[in-house]
Specification:
Layout: E1 40-46, H1 49-58, H2 65-82, H3 89-96, E2 101-103, H4 107-113, E3 120-122, E4 127-131, E5 139-143, E6 145-147, E7 150-152, E8 159-160, E9 165-170, H5 188-194, H6 201-205
Antiparallel strand pairs: 1-4, 1-9, 2-3, 4-5, 6-7, 7-8
Length: 213
Amino acid sequence: MTATSDRPATTLRPSKRSRHVALMLAGAAVLTLAACEDDKVDAQAFPDLDSCLAAAQTDGLWFSADDCRTQFAAAAQEHLETAPRYESRELCEQEHGVGACGADPAAGEAGAQQGGGFSFMPLLMGYMMGSMLARGGGVFSQPMVRSPGGYSTPSGNQSFASNAGTGKVPAATFNRAPSTIGKPPMSQAQVAQRGGFGASATSRTGGARSSGG
């Protein structure tokens, strides 16, 4: 499966070092979706930009400091456009954890104009970069938010135990989720009907799910 995105891609450069950091993105929870081994790509997650910049100097195998900056900006923008939105802070924190939500910065603009009203969304808790060397080259990213199982991409279709470390993830992890900006926030009844964040991500966002190999 080929990951598609309209986010900026950065050119890969030769690896500086031959070892991987001994951390794994997914711990006991591993990935919530199965994927064929040959459909997985190298990925590394960071809780913030500074940690990525530090890794680029010491352990960067396929990304540079410029990649860190470019993809952090891309992930922040994607988070703003695609993160789930809720009608109250309490409902958001019910799904993402106490202190892990904030007011929707776009609610006063596109939200009000398109009938979305005031809403709350999970905070950006880091970002993941992936190497698409086998898929035409370039580095892509995804924002990460808190989820019941640890951390997740905004669509909720994949969960990780940590927002720091390296690992292999399905290429579909870097598919862009449909936009939620300006749309009506989810109500308590809607969240309950879907079984909570991530339980029915496909029906909520139309996000792709990987198939087992």
